[in-house]
Amino acid sequence: MAFTLYALIQTAILFTNAIAVLHEERFLSKIGWGAEQSIGGFGDEPGIKAQLLNLIRSVRTVMRVPLIAVNSVCIVLLLLFG
């Protein structure tokens, strides 16, 4: 496989899909990354773990519908052009 722009875009789509399918109760809470672990005090800067949890929740919320369309386009392109 050549290192092309399409390969980079496909990698980004696969990475976004991987984030989007992480289930908070079934997977993230088992490794200690559930919703209850991210509670911080007022004025405290959130740590890396809290920021990653916020990113995962945001990707799941915002990218759910666009990912369906982008995945469909990628599947059609792969079927047409191999």
UniProtKB/TrEMBL annotation:
An example Gene Ontology CC term for this record: endoplasmic reticulum membrane
A Pfam family annotated for this UniProt entry: Yos1
Localization of this protein: Membrane
Main location: membrane
Transmembrane segments: 62-81
Signal peptide region: 1-20
InterPro entries attached to this UniProt entry: Yos1
Keywords: Membrane, Protein transport, Signal, Transmembrane, Transmembrane helix, Transport
Superkingdom as given in the UniProt entry: Eukaryota
GO biological process: endoplasmic reticulum to Golgi vesicle-mediated transport; protein transport
Record family assignment: Belongs to the YOS1 family.
PANTHER family: IMMEDIATE EARLY RESPONSE 3-INTERACTING PROTEIN 1
Protein function: Regulator of endoplasmic reticulum secretion that acts as a key determinant of brain size. Required for secretion of extracellular matrix proteins. Required for correct brain development by depositing sufficient extracellular matrix proteins for tissue integrity and the proliferation of neural progenitors. Acts as a regulator of the unfolded protein response (UPR).
Name by which UniProt lists this protein: Immediate early response 3-interacting protein 1
